[in-house]
Amino acid sequence: MISVQGKGVSGGVAIGPLYCYQRAKSTIRRYEVEDVDAEWDRFKAAQTKAIEQLGELAEKAREEAGDEAALLFETHQMMAEDMEYEEAIQTAIRDKKLNAEAAVTDTAAQFAARFAAMEDAYFQARAADVKDVSDRIISALTGVVRGGIDSPVPVILAADDLSPSETVQLDKSRILGFVTEGGSDSGHTAILARTMGIPAIIGVGDQLKPEYEGREVIIDGSTGNVVIDADEDARSCLLRKMEEQKKMRELLEQLKGQPNETKDGQSIRVYCNIGSPDDVPAVLANDAGGVGLFRSEFLYLNCDDYPTEDYQFEAYKKALSDMGGKEVVIRTLDIGADKQIGYFDLPKEENPAMGNRALRICLNRPEIFHTQLRALFRASAFGKLGIMFPMVTSVWEVKEARKMCERVKEELTKEGIPFSDHVEIGIMIETPAAVLMSDRLAKEVDFFSCGTNDLTQYMLACDRQNADLGRFYNPHHPAVLRALKMVCDNAHRNGIWVGICGELGVDLSLTETFLAIGIDELSVSPHSVLPLRQKIRETTIFDVKQKILEDLLSDENTI
Ligand code: PEP
Ligand code: MG
To answer: From ligand 2's centre to the CA of 453, what distance in Å?
Structure first.
């Protein structure tokens, strides 16, 4: 038995023969060309062909794995015709008189090296993309077809590092899992594997030898362990885990369409947290009731400049229409602290978590807020929208934010642009001030959503980013749980609903507590919806409610 350790980036256990991916390498010839115009035309024809192929791949990926997977190939299309990239190839052909294949190879190497040298892991991973795009253009120039899987049975695929287009071109019905020598967590192979639900392990280096090919291998995507020719004990242990996962998935599948209701009939809404309209298919696939938190700042983080009203409108409209009338709560811009954006040009702060962030930026720079609110209200005509403001501390902030909403609605009315009259306006409860003022704040809004990630940080004065503070950052702290109860009571006294959209919502050890204090909605990641539904449906809240509430307020509950 040989055991190899890598990094699991997509969960699940798979067993099958190891297959080493053979990439069809085209040998690149280098020579000097006389007719540089003809060579440039050869390049342009190959580039057009590559862009067409990428368009087809984008469609295939969209069908198999949704919009996010398709976006990879659309990005590749853009890379293939990137002006700087094209100019570098043109210089190599026209000035150095290089043949097109060599010009593309050299340019790819230059660009890949530039990406690899960047500090940001995301950009480092883009080195593989530029090589991939260039290989495609070279294939179009040489006519050499790229590699595939030549095996009659499904396999565990081993490769140095699969490129996104290689991953999507593979016949998935013959792949049980991926193991790659290199790769990164934010690399596209990992992203695609997760979206497609195939176990994947990256970073095993040179531990997988070519001579292992054809031998039985078991991979565990949650631990990153790869076992070749497992002994009886390891084999039966991993197979048992695989069987349990399969049963669990089947069991959870049966929960689709079932209510989130305790045995004694108390129900709670289970919604999802998303960062982009591309996450909506996963929300629907997991049968969530709606979106409880759309972190709109990801739209801003993905842009090089302030996203325009139209750009934002399209994104919000897409999320709302794709949700087919189910509620979508979109949080207004929440940057600052851990989420910095260069083009906002925010002055450096001594204490950014307590600085100019979230709603404070929106109120200090009303033009940014105004653009976002216009986009949001315009999108409200296409579904059931809720808008919520992050990092609230005072009633006046909410009043000012609502005033801006009114101004936007008046403008849209004057311009004859349709919007919904039923947009719910809520706030996030993330600060001790908002907790203590929740009786008063509840009179200003339609709902509360508790951001327990920040609420824990601010209640306990404990930086959520600082890994060294591990045991001090405790969201189970009675101060946090009592705060949630107080917020819940104040919300209900004023006839509004209250949810939790921080990570605590998915903590199954607290589901009974949330039910006991009367939380109305939990918003969690899409893959957590069904396990949470299972937990709710197993609970009889009447039996435990009184004790939970007593414990919460008891003198003994000090931690
Ligand atoms: C939170 O603070 O709990 C929250 C949901 O917001 P974020 O994690 O985006 O700050
Ligand atoms: Mg927060």
So the answer is: 6
